[in-house]
Design brief:
The protein is of the alpha+beta class and 100 residues long. It contains two helices and five strands; from the N terminus they run αβββββα. The protein is globular.
């Protein structure tokens, strides 16, 4: 489960990504999205746990100011999963070029 402070950050980051403020890199072969900003970077990887039969995300947040890395995890049985899934979807679509 994500710490409340980090979950609020995720919600704000999602909204700002959906508004077009951030452009993420997307690696479709590895189901990975990455964002690099001045003060932080964040990567988010999706996977499906075949043994447990649920989807999961691993989030790496790197604080460039403090030079520290934080790792968070969620899966579809936890309440914060939908927030991370929405961020992942917004991030992978952030550089899409659509015909209209």
């Amino acid at each position: 489960m994500l710490p409340p402070k980090f979950l609020e950050f995720v919600k704000t980051l999602t909204a700002r990504t959906e508004q077009g403020e951030f452009s993420w890199s997307y690696d479709d072969n590895n189901s990975l999205v990455k964002l690099k900003e001045k003060a932080f970077s964040l990567s988010l990887r999706y996977s499906f746990n075949a043994d447990e039969k649920y989807a999961e995300y691993v989030i790496y947040y790197f604080d460039d100011i403090e030079d520290k890395e934080y790792r968070f995890y969620t899966n579809q049985t936890w309440n914060d999963f939908d927030f991370i899934r929405r961020l992942f979807d917004a991030a992978q679509a952030s550089k899409m070029k659509l015909p209209f």
